[in-house]
């Protein structure tokens, strides 16, 4: 049975989806927005793809903003417009790896990664590692919007 969303999940995930609209367009990567939120609902960091570097992923950037060696407290959630990556060509560590290394125990996302660039298995790998994963597919269409140029070719 899938995990059920808590009261603020839709609002916070909507904010992450909106951040994806800030991404510089790319023909080789998805536009993604992400938030890191503590158990009290305070947004600790936000990120979006290619914010500082053409290879930056949203979750990667948000976690990096928290500083080297940052560790998540209990109840910390990563909100991402796209399922966290489980494979990548541009960097050695995936977003799934970075989330696990930070000790995040909950991930909420809108859109499953389509197989356009890599085979996405982030949700399955996170669950296998004991992370609570919540998918809100009702926000997937909004998450696809800044990526329409990739999907309509």
TrEMBL record:
GO-annotated molecular function: catalytic activity
Annotated CMP/dCMP-type deaminase domain residues: 7-133
N-terminal signal peptide: none
Superkingdom of origin: Bacteria
Stated name of the protein: Diaminohydroxyphosphoribosylaminopyrimidine deaminase
């Amino acid at each position: 049975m899938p995990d059920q969303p808590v009261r603020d999940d839709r609002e916070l995930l909507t904010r992450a989806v909106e951040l994806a609209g800030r991404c510089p367009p790319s023909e080789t990567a998805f536009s993604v927005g992400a938030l890191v939120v503590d158990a009290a609902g305070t947004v600790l960091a936000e990120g979006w793809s290619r914010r500082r570097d053409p290879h930056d992923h949203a979750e990667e950037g948000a976690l990096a903003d928290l500083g080297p060696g940052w560790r998540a407290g209990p109840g910390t959630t990563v909100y991402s417009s796209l399922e966290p990556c489980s494979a990548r060509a541009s960097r050695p560590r995936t977003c799934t790896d970075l989330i696990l290394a930070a000790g995040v125990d909950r991930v909420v996302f809108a859109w499953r990664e389509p197989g356009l660039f890599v085979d996405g298995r982030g949700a399955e790998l996170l669950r296998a590692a004991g992370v609570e994963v919540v998918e809100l597919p009702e926000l997937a269409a909004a998450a696809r919007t800044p990526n329409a140029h990739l999907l309509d070719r």
